[in-house]
Amino acid sequence: DAATLGGVAAEDYRTTSGTVDWTDLAGVPPGLADGADADTTYTAGAGLTLTGTAFAADRATLEGWARAVCYDTEAELTALLDDNYRAAGWVPAWTDVTGVPAGFADGTDNDTTYSAGAGLALAGTVFSVNGVTSAMIVDGAVTGADIAVGAIAGSHITTGAVGSAQLATSSVTPAHLTDGTALAEIGDDDGAGSGLDADLLDGVHLASVRSGIEYIGFGSWRSSPTRLVRTAGTITVPASGYVLVLAQGEKSADAGETWAGFIHWNGSDHNADFDYSAAAGWSLWSLQNVFPVSAGTTYVFGVSDSMGGGDGAMDVNCTSVAAVFFPVRL
Questions:
Q1: In the chain, pLDDT over 90 holds for what percent of residues?
Q2: Residue (of 231, 206, 239) closest to 322 by Cα position
């Protein structure tokens, strides 16, 4: 807290937060005394231009430099390449080839000897096929596409060489069988171990077809306005195909009463012939419908009905209901 420091008063020192005015500087060069660089001169060197105080690249100079070290036209490039490379379509002459073995010097192979291998014959300089044996053919190498239609006759096949294992499923069609020959073979061998079954109908044994029939016996009921299942049974089909359901009977009606009968199949009703309008007294009725089925499945079949008009009830007799399986739709 001294009045002076080294004999100098405190007000003669500047603090660290103070500033210095340009006019307080000593020894400023004359060219900067007015605060402007007024006497420094700049010029544009090679590859540059100067406009006012702005420098820029000299495009013409730079492109000239690039052309001096690069090929910038096709003519310049091909002029150099044509002296060192052949044209794309050039074909060398035999005499232009160096290092040709002595045996080929005259353009002819004079000393290479050839011989005929398996399946070939050699006569002079001509090779030909001399027969192909089964040992030369890899198993599976020859397919149906390699054999022309009619190329293989019965005389080419050893007896017993072709069995069922050599025939793909459905590969033999009626067009491949001579009329009468297949039937004669079946008649000759069936039952004696031939493996053929002459009793198949579209792949389903006739015994299975005969077993695919179910009946529902006689029944009678009082029909009402409410549709109900009146009689029902089941059928288990032996194979995929179709089931024909048939039903018939008679009904007694008063004048003005109508009756609607339905084939009942596996939980739903199918109106086979729409409504039957009844006159007074007894009259016949019949219903039928066909349904696709799957092998081994059990189905419910029967008859359902309803009536309208009159006193609200009608006597109905059902003489028979039958479900018959067929392997194909009739």
A1: 22
A2: 231
**Which residues is 204 bridged to in the sheet?**
201
The pLDDT of 187-216, averaged and rounded, is 55
- Alpha-carbon 11 to chain mean position: 99
Q: How much is the pLDDT for 112?
A: 77
pLDDT value, residue 244: 93
Closest CA to 266 of 227, 323, 306: 323
Q: What confidence score (pLDDT) does residue 163 get?
A: 76
* pLDDT given at position 185: 58
163-194 per-position pLDDT tens digit? 777 777 777 777 777 666 665 555 555 544 44
User: Hey, CA dihedral for 14, 15, 16, 20, is it positive or negative?
Assistant: negative
Q: What per-residue string of b and e applies to 175-204 under the rule 16 or more CB within 10 Å gives b?
A: eeeeeeeeeeeeeeeeeeeeebeeeeeeeb
Length of the chain: 330
Report if pTM > 0.70: no
**How many CB atoms are located within 10 Å of the residue 76 CB?**
12
pLDDT at 59: 92
Q: What is the 3-state secondary structure (H, E, C) of the chain?
A: CCCEECCEEHHHCCCCCCCCCHHHCCCCCHHHCCCCCCCCCCCCCCCEEEECCEEEECHHHHHHHHHHHCCCCHHHHHHHHCCCCCCCCCCCCHHHCCCCCHHHCCCCCCCCCCCCCCCEEEECCEEEECCCCHHHCCCCCCCHHHCCCCCCCHHHCCCCCCCHHHCCCCCCCHHHCCCCHHHHHHHHHCCCCCCCCCCEECCEEHHHHHHCEEEECCEEEEECCCCEEEEEEEEECCCCEEEEEEEEEEEEECCCCEEEEEEEECCEEECCCCEEECCCEEEEEEEEEEEEECCCCEEEEEEEEEEECCCCCEEEEEEEEEEEEECCCC
